[in-house]
């Protein structure tokens, strides 16, 4: 059974059929899914999804593009609700220099604060990093984020950066990009990574794999990602699914709740 370690099911793209998708999880070979917060509004939505649906777990954190809305009060709210048995991580947190929505200094400040929160509450982190390879890695080292551990979400850098994160003990979130014809960099990283450091993720509703590229993504499509990884590593799809399931439980222990 597949575990989707990163999706955004509170997104409006699922307003019409969210419940139907969750009810179909088992029939689609899915065991559990983790809803990742991104905005301050999604914090409460994520928590509510975990209460409403047994297959849904959550992570609490603010995406770097949305960090301008984060306040101390929100941090206090996350600190309290991090103790919930179905909240598995602090995420999606990190740095994003692609759109420059928030200044680099503001992003770095809140990334550090959210790493500190994760260490305080004893949860791993889920890291977003786009066009910010050097600063993300440097900050993770400076803040000793390896103490919390976690996942580098939608890993988009090269093999050398991947080796750095491997040495720090992090896992790698791999999704639809590995199936893309122009996903060479991701393919090279997956070929290098040991299977015991890979977790499957959709980032739904974004980044649907081939043959659904450009359409709304959903957890059921992760079988295509598993099959692609299996072909690259000379394994069966079932072997990849089982290994990544075990990895998900290892990096996010509260998934066992």
Walk me through the structure.
- This protein has 257 residues and is α/β, with parallel strands linked by helices.
- It has helices at 18-23, 40-52, 72-81, 104-121, 133-142, 159-168, 184-192, 222-233, 237-251, and strands at 2-7, 30-36, 56-60, 87-96, 125-130, 150-152, 171-174, 198-200.
- Strands 1-2-3-4-5-6-7-8 form an eight-stranded parallel β-sheet.
- α8 crosses α9 (237-251).
- It is globular.
- The two termini are 16 Å apart.
What is the gist of this entry?
The protein has nine helices and eight strands.
List keywords for this structure.
single chain; 257 residues; alpha/beta; eight-stranded parallel β-sheet; 9 helices; 40% helix; 17% strand; globular
Strand order in the sheet with the most strands: 1-2-3-4-5-6-7-8
> What distance separates the N and C termini?
16 Å
The number of helical segments is: 9
Low-confidence runs of at least 5 consecutive residues: none
**How would a textbook summarize the main sheet?**
8 strands, parallel
pLDDT average, as an integer?
Answer: 98
The shape is globular
Topology overview:
Layout: E1 2-7, H1 18-23, E2 30-36, H2 40-52, E3 56-60, H3 72-81, E4 87-96, H4 104-121, E5 125-130, H5 133-142, E6 150-152, H6 159-168, E7 171-174, H7 184-192, E8 198-200, H8 222-233, H9 237-251
Parallel strand pairs: 1-2, 2-3, 3-4, 4-5, 5-6, 6-7, 7-8
């Amino acid at each position: 059974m597949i575990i989707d370690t990163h999706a955004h099911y509170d997104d409006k793209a699922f307003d019409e059929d969210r419940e139907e998708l969750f009810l179909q999880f088992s029939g689609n070979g899915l065991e559990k899914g983790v809803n990742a917060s991104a905005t301050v509004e999604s914090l409460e939505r994520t928590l509510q999804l975990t209460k409403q649906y047994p297959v849904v777990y959550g992570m609490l954190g603010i995406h770097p593009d949305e960090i301008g809305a984060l306040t101390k009060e929100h941090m206090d709210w996350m600190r309290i609700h991090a103790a919930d048995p179905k909240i598995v991580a602090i995420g999606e947190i990190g740095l994003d220099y692609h759109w420059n929505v928030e200044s680099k200094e503001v992003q770095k400040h809140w990334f550090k604060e959210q790493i500190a929160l994760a260490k305080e509450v004893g949860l791993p982190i889920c890291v977003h990093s786009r066009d910010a390879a050097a600063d993300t890695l440097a900050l993770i080292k400076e803040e000793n984020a390896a103490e919390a551990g976690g996942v580098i979400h939608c890993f988009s850098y090269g093999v050398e950066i991947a080796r750095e994160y491997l040495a720090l003990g992090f896992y790698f979130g791999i999704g639809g990009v590995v199936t893309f014809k122009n996903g060479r960099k991701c393919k090279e990283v997956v070929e290098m990574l040991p299977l015991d450091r890979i977790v499957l993720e959709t980032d739904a509703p974004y980044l649907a794999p081939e043959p659904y590229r450009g359409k709304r993504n959903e957890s059921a499509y992760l079988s295509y990602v598993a099959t692609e990884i299996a072909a690259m590593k000379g394994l069966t799809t079932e072997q990849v699914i089982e290994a990544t399931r075990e990895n998900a439980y290892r990096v996010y222990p509260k998934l066992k709740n």
